[in-house]
Amino acid sequence: MEFSQLLTTRRSCRSFDSTPVTEDQIAAILQAGCWAPSPLNLQPWEFIVVTDPRTKTQVRDAAEMAKNEVIAADGPGWVKKYSADFVQDAPLLLVVVFNPGKGGLGAFFGQPHGALQAASACIQNMMLKASELGLESLWFTFFRPDELAPVFNIPENLEIAGVIALGKPAEEVKAPPRRTPAVYGERYGVLNE
Ligand SMILES: Cc1cc2nc3c(=O)[nH]c(=O)nc-3n(C[C@H](O)[C@H](O)[C@H](O)COP(=O)(O)O)c2cc1C
The whole model's pTM is what? Predict the structure, then answer.
């Protein structure tokens, strides 16, 4: 698929069918992730490939707990209707973890998030690659990291950038609209007419 088309047709998917993601597809998706830029080329990401339904249920349960926290704290009303059941249906979850200590020099001058930024670029690459392969994905973060770290046996020096649900979409997803971004000329607040 042509790149510009891929950019606009990739969609966050919350309904998957049961077609497994093949080993070749997984390899291609991880490879795409690894071509992301990273500070000092430190490539701070590591991946956990998850297909065990019991583990997926634990992710769903962690989402339910997070949802209850939002509700208890009087968060946005729509959260009550949000269901993370699709996490169980997705044939594959890719957990992307990163080492926050591999963020390059930024920590010396007020930019401590280099490793997360790199892991995020890695995730975007993987999601675009998945779309190219006829799959769709969801960058899932609706959980307390402390709840999931033991589920995946993640060591204390690593953090979770996201759990990426992947598979063939069960239905077509409408593109959420994009806002026209604020674009300024030379300095913030100066509109480019
Ligand atoms: C960092 C990040 C975290 C996200 N977390 C969730 C999530 O926990 N659950 C969810 O349903 N969608 C999540 N999303 C997906 C967004 O809702 C989605 O990208 C947005 O609505 C735009 O839709 P699109 O990806 O189809 O263009 C997340 C996206 C990003 C970038």
Answer: 0.97
Residues 49-89 have pLDDT tens digits of 999 999 999 999 999 999 999 999 999 999 999 999 999 99
How far, in Å, from the CA of 38 to the mean position of ligand 1? 22
Residue 137's nearest CA partner among 125, 146, 147 is 125
Q: Is 46 inside a domain boundary?
A: yes
Coil, helix or strand for 161? strand
| Residue whose CB lies within 8 A of the most ligand 1 atoms, among 123, 141, 160, 172, for a mutation test | 141
Segments forming the whole domain that contains residue 20: 3-167
Domain assignment present for residue 177? The answer is: no
Is residue 184 assigned to a domain? Answer: no
11 Cα to the center of ligand 1, angstroms: 9
Q: State how many domains the chain has.
A: 1
Contact call for residues 144 and 66 (beta carbons, < 8 A): yes
Name the 3-class secondary structure at 59. Answer: helix
- For residue 142, which atom of ligand 1 is closest to its CA? 8
